[in-house]
Amino acid sequence: MKDNSFTDISDPQALQEAAQEIQENIVQQRINYWMDRFFKKDNKAIGPAGRRRAST
């Protein structure tokens, strides 16, 4: 299966160098951004497993 993956690269050294330049804090910021977008921190609206809580 080749969907969403690299199966061959013409310059492995360039890929290695690019990977080594990635900074942990930037990766963490992007993860936090997308987690906030997909999983809002509004605990009143969303209950366990993402199911909406019944109104009381």
TrEMBL record:
<protein>
    <submittedName>
        <fullName>Uncharacterized protein</fullName>
    </submittedName>
</protein>
